[in-house]
Automatic annotation (TrEMBL), chain A:
UniProt keyword list: Membrane, Transcription, Transcription regulation, Transmembrane, Transmembrane helix
Organism in which the protein naturally occurs: Nocardioides agariphilus
UniProt name for this protein: Zf-HC2 domain-containing protein
Transmembrane segments: 93-112, 118-137, 158-181, 187-206, 213-231, 237-259
Keyword Transcription assigned: yes
Record InterPro entries: Anti_sigma_zinc_sf
Automatic annotation (TrEMBL), chain B:
The species this protein was found in: Nocardioides agariphilus
Keyword ATP-binding: yes
ABC transporter domain mapped to chain residues: 4-235
Entry's family note: Belongs to the ABC transporter superfamily.
PROSITE patterns in the cross-refs: ABC_TRANSPORTER_1 (PS00211), ABC_TRANSPORTER_2 (PS50893)
Record carries keyword Oxidoreductase: no
One annotated GO molecular function: ATP hydrolysis activity
InterPro entries, A to Z: AAA+_ATPase, ABC_transporter-like_ATP-bd, ABC_transporter-like_CS, P-loop_NTPase
Keywords assigned by UniProt, alphabetized: ATP-binding, Nucleotide-binding, Transport
Record protein name field: ATP-binding cassette domain-containing protein
Length: 271, 285
């Protein structure tokens, strides 16, 4: 003969008034007894049930957060931003590995070719430019158009992704700069040119030019400029303190232009 | 108030005009946009989704001007969009992808966002596949996933570009069912090549050919434009603009009906073929 739960026990269970051990017994019983399950279901407060069920399903979904996203959150990145960053094409492992290998080769060239830190200074500013170009736009982001029609689409998304790519590149490059030749200027001299190239690339991309092509052109121009500077007797003309001051001023001016043209990005100018 | 209003809108890509002087008012209903490839349907829908700006003319969406940044954000809050090629992160799960779009749609609070994601996945019948990677989903499931992300936040305007392309007949029926019983009854603007989708789903149909609107009315009114211009015969009639052999073995002809031919009741398909066929003839001459 099956023993059913007393009505008083069901009432207390439904009111969440049973001790933990007794509540567990009730739960074990209702799993095997359809009659008591129906009685319990009829008495449980539906709002409370929905809340518990919601929390349960939420936990199940939460456990499936991807590993890089979980790491970013542990580092203090707000959850929504972490979610956006893991969808950034140029923050994927393959891209970061490419950056590390390129920088390693540049450092090696700087230490072995006798050209000082010039190979490093030529390559380091270009990496964030390429990274940002492949982080945004129809050609590189599979879900670009879906994202573009959302509140965060356009300039806000571009800023979040550009910021993340810059942060990643600066971190890796800063580590690489430590092993440059001791008499070099590379530890910081690449930073302002890099910012300038990034901002100029974004500004030009607010016209109808496709960002990957703009990035490629700007990078090629930069490499030519460095090559010309390397051939001249005054290489400091490009990386000395005077040049850095001019670069800083140009970066600020370009940033102003970018801000004034941000609506072009929000109107879907970038491809 | 119109959900979408286009006033003399034009757009060119290089020297090629995609839209020319388009005037359109879309009221709350399901409106089908019908037209051949290259007619300008996608361009028009991308403008309606605030993804593309017109070269000339004015657009108002949900009573707001998308040219103004603040108004554009307000529009985007109330908009759902399925592009022609939605594009997915294939290694993401269905849940993860919709959650990502929910983040972009500024549903910041995690619990509310996840509830919303579950709700839309439930609606399109993907709850059981929520934690499956997108690369493992079938084409029909991916189309439903694209619809799910568009339904986030109960949009007032839903824009669907070729959303039934590539679906098998059963999936298309399920899709029609989903669109026709949307709980919030948003304004739906859907582009398609499928005239039967238009007949079955849309209260209104707009035919766009070569960047201009050639017809705007109900599907029945569209079919009526071919009245007296469709006839059936045992043999092919060279005088017809378009003709094909039907499953009954007879030829169905569309065009200027000869006096001796008996006309038959036209369909939306006939009328659309007549419109687009006439355009092809005009262009070739």
């Amino acid at each position: 003969m099956t023993t059913h739960l007393p009505a008083a026990t069901i009432e207390k269970y439904a009111a969440d008034a049973l001790p933990y051990a007794d509540a567990s017994s009730v739960e074990a019983h209702v799993l095997a007894c359809p009659a008591c399950r129906r009685l319990v279901a009829g008495q449980v407060d539906q709002a409370r049930l929905r809340a518990i069920w919601g929390e349960l399903t939420d936990r199940v979904d939460e456990d499936r957060v991807r590993v890089p996203e979980r790491w970013l959150r542990r580092l203090g990145t707000p959850a929504p931003v972490a979610k956006i960053l893991v969808c950034t094409p140029s923050l994927r492992g393959s891209w970061l590995l490419g950056v590390v290998i390129t920088l390693a080769l540049a450092v090696l060239a700087s230490r072995t070719t006798g050209g000082g830190d010039l190979p490093f200074l030529a390559v380091a500013p270009v990496l964030p430019v390429v990274g940002i170009a492949v982080s945004f736009g129809r050609a590189m982001d599979a879900a670009w158009e879906v994202g573009e029609a959302t509140v965060t689409g356009g300039f806000p998304l571009l800023l979040i992704r550009a910021g993340a790519v810059l942060a990643a590149c600066v971190s890796v490059t800063a580590v690489a700069a430590v092993v440059l030749p001791a008499d070099g200027r590379g530890a910081l001299a690449w930073l302002l040119p890099s910012l300038l190239l990034v901002v100029v690339t974004l500004v030009i991309s607010t016209t109808r030019a496709a960002m990957p092509y703009v990035a490629a052109t700007i990078s090629a121009i930069w490499l030519c400029v460095v090559a010309i500077a390397a051939a001249s007797p005054r290489t400091d003309a490009l990386f000395g303190s005077g040049a850095q001051a001019i670069t800083a001023a140009l970066t600020l001016a370009a940033a102003g232009v970018l801000l004034s043209r941000r609506h072009a990005i929000e109107s879907g100018t970038l491809r | 108030m119109s959900s979408l209003s286009l006033e003399n809108v034009g757009k060119k890509f290089g020297s090629t005009p995609a839209l020319a002087g388009v005037r359109l008012e879309v009221e709350p209903s399901v409106t089908g946009l019908l037209g051949p490839n290259g007619a300008g349907k996608t361009t028009l829908l991308r403008m309606a989704a605030t993804v593309l700006a017109p070269d000339s003319g004015r657009i108002r969406i949900l009573g707001r001007d998308p040219a103004h940044p603040h108004e554009r954000v307000e529009i985007r809050r109330r908009l759902g969009y399925v592009p022609q090629e939605p594009g997915f992160y294939r290694n993401f799960t269905a849940f993860d992808f919709v959650d990502y779009v929910a983040v972009l749609k500024d549903i910041a609070e995690r619990r509310r966002r996840h509830d919303e994601v579950r709700k839309v996945l439930d609606y399109v019948g993907l709850r059981d596949h929520a934690h499956q990677r997108i690369k493992a989903l079938s084409g029909g499931m991916r189309q439903r996933l694209a619809l799910a992300q568009a339904l986030l936040g109960d949009p007032e305007l839903l824009i669907l570009d070729e959303a039934t392309a590539g679906l098998d007949p059963e999936q298309r029926l399920r899709f029609r069912e989903m669109i026709s019983v949307l709980p919030q009854r948003p304004t739906v603007l859907i582009s398609t090549h499928q005239t039967d989708d238009v007949s079955a789903l849309c209260q209104r149909v707009v035919v766009l050919i070569a960047g201009t609107i050639r017809f705007d009315g109900t599907p029945a009114e569209l079919a009526a434009t071919a009245s007296d211009r469709v006839w059936v015969d045992a043999d092919r009639d060279e005088r017809a603009a378009v003709s094909w052999r039907t499953s009954a073995g007879q030829f169905r002809h569309i065009g200027e009906r000869p006096a001796d031919a008996q006309s038959v009741t036209p369909t939306v398909d006939d009328a659309y073929l007549l419109l687009s066929g006439a355009d092809i003839s005009a262009r070739s001459s």
